[in-house]
Amino acid sequence: MRRKIVAGNWKMNLTFPQAKELALRLNTWVHANKPSVEIIIAPTHLYLDQIGKDLKNSKIRVASQNVSAMENGAYTGDVSTEQLQSIGINCSIVGHSERRQYHNEQDKYIGKKITHLYEHGMTPILCIGEKLEDREAGKHFDVVKEQVTVALERQDPDKLKDLIVAYEPVWAIGTGKTATPDQAQEMHDFIRKTIGAEHGISIANTTSILYGGSVNAGNARDLFEQYDIDGALVGGASLNLDDFTTIIKARY
């Protein structure tokens, strides 16, 4: 059965006091409302240890926004799977479009990160999505297929059972533009079929595929009504408790 998931990517936002307050307020809300949805938040690396401790007995999962493709060594500024795991973090976003754009991360490199995560028993949230020019040129399916295929080509099918994929069309991230529910469903269905063709139907049918790209309190319910959309990876709206909890409630 596919898991319903709402994840918040806080990116490079919030001071530590602000992040701690938001995490604790969200935890209070979750305790009171007991939503039937898996909730993940991804604060900046600096805050992972303390927020992880604050939410140790919570139903909220704390994830990293990124992880190194290297095990350890002279890689200034990188954070390894082993380091994350040593502070209790067992999930990481990989392949976000901002990492692809600003740090030139390629699909094979992203696949190496996924391999390291699985070697340490951690869960990857693989981000994929096309640019506006790709969609306008009718290449969006080709681009997304390449991203999925290359990033997952060396992965053990048994380990893929807990894979989370986030489809985030680059043209919709932080722009206020959102794929229509039909556009999002069409791509989610395509992603699931691509995973099925490469790794088997059983893996495809258990993979949670999230939508990301200007998800907000106003459009979440329409997106979640689509059969292949299992939840959302939320950016800016995850920084506002009322907006984020409204999105979570829309996924019940």
TrEMBL record:
CDD domains registered for this protein in UniProt: TIM (cd00311)
Subunit structure and binding partners: Homodimer.
Name of the protein in its database record: Triosephosphate isomerase
Underlying gene: tpiA
Catalytic activity: D-glyceraldehyde 3-phosphate = dihydroxyacetone phosphate
Native organism: Moheibacter sediminis
Entry's localization field: Cytoplasm
Residue runs in coiled coils: none
Pathway: Carbohydrate degradation; glycolysis; D-glyceraldehyde 3-phosphate from glycerone phosphate: step 1/1; Carbohydrate biosynthesis; gluconeogenesis
UniProt superkingdom: Bacteria
Gene3D superfamilies, sorted: Aldolase class I (3.20.20.70)
A biological-process GO annotation: gluconeogenesis
Residues where substrate binds: 9-11, 174, 214, 235-236
GO CC terms of this entry: cytosol
Entry's family note: Belongs to the triosephosphate isomerase family.
Organism placement in taxonomy: Bacteria, Pseudomonadati, Bacteroidota, Flavobacteriia, Flavobacteriales
EC class (word): isomerase
